[in-house]
Amino acid sequence: MKSDFNFDRAVERRGTNSVKWDMRDDDVIPMWVADMDFESPREVRDAIVERARHGVYGYTIESAGLLKAVGDWVGRRHNWTIEQEWIAFTPGVMPGIRGLLQVLTRPGDKVILQSPVYPPFFSVIRDSGCHVLNNQLKYEHSRYTMDFVDLEEKAKEPRTKALILCSPHNPVGRVWTRDELTMLGNICLEHGVVMISDEIHSDLVYKEYKHIPLASICDEFRENSITCMAPSKTFNLAGLKTACLVIPDSEVRREFRSLILPKQATIFGGIAAEAAYTWGGKWLDALLDYLQGNRQFLTGYLKENIPQIEGVEAEGTYLVWLDCRKLGMDNEGLERFMLDKARLWVNQGYSFGSGGDGFIRMNIGCPRSILEKALMRLHGAIYNL
């Protein structure tokens, strides 16, 4: 059935102060930072315009409608019932995690990550005065899994206070299963490690897979975890700076709310989030179909034309992790090749920590014509090696 939404339409983003498109003025195709090149749902745009007409944009509080919309969305899409009082809004997931680390840790404590993983996690831990304990993911048979033996060793180390879980995982695209999450949760419970679950990509999961909120598995996990969510990736609202944390533990929530930074949603962020969570379901379903088509197009193109590069199957997110090690380049050489020869701006794997050397991350949240043009450039550059 034909979709009512036209994701093939290329929206001109140059000249809009776009981080993605305006940081370079050459012909390099940007496929790096995690925002999409699609218009947000019409209901979101209409709600922003209607609020803008009011003309006064003072300090704001989250509305009852926004709280209800978040709870209803999580219940419909992820079969998890959350209480409105558990929700705290912040300008973004990373400011929220920064605040959580202030509450949960002291300088010198240790926080577990699972690399290769979203690079700002490393800096937010270090900026909090803590040490990173890396529980590196295992890459076997073109698929990533958790190393639970190593995880337990890291969890039992003195002064290990927290773990940051990326679920679905950025950049490797894994959607963790219930069994995997249960094993992780039990290890953290046994050793008193609080789980911070970054689930910002939770709505962007392909049909063969299902996202399971970590905190929904059992009451013990719920009380020992904080879930980070946002409409930013789902509905392409990153510039509106609104995210929410679900904090069931009343003491952690009280301390978190007492911080200066995470006080409120922005005016237009709150308006957009409420509209998106209320009316955006059909748009998201159509988007997921389109992204699935992009994923299939990428996989087929690589197999047929660029066998030197292997795509790690993305179970979720619009970010694809590509294994370029057969090209035989070091990190610096691969980075120069992508920019200077292929004329593509992608994220380099080494920036995601150990296990990332020789990989790149490519954003396929774009019209298929842009994706095809990018892959043709890549093919031509490799052919000319």
Features:
2 domains; Aspartate Aminotransferase, domain 2; Aspartate Aminotransferase, domain 1; alpha/beta; 15 strands; four-stranded antiparallel beta sheet; 385 residues; seven-stranded mixed beta sheet; single chain
Summarize the structure.
The chain is α/β, with parallel strands linked by helices. The chain has helices at 19-22, 42-52, 64-78, 93-104, 120-127, 148-155, 178-190, 219-223, 232-235, 250-257, 267-279, 281-305, 331-341, 368-383; strands spanning 29-30, 87-90, 110-113, 131-134, 138-140, 143-145, 160-166, 194-198, 225-229, 243-246, 310-312, 319-323, 344-345, 347-348, 359-363.
Q: Give the total of domains.
A: 2
Topology, number of strands: 15
Might you state the CATH topology name of the largest domain? Answer: Aspartate Aminotransferase, domain 2
Structural class: alpha/beta
Give me the number of helical elements.
Answer: 14
Distance between the termini: 43 Å
The fraction of residues in strands falls at 15-25%
Q: Low-confidence parts lasting 5 or more residues at pLDDT below 50?
A: none
Strand order of the largest sheet: 2-10-9-8-7-3-4
Largest sheet: 7 strands, mixed
Within CATH, the superfamily of the largest domain carries the name: Type I PLP-dependent aspartate aminotransferase-like (Major domain)
CATH class of the largest domain: Alpha Beta
Integer average pLDDT: 96
What's the SSE pattern? Answer: HEHHEHEHEEEHEHEHEHEHHHEEHEEEH
- Percentage of residues assigned to helices: 25-40%
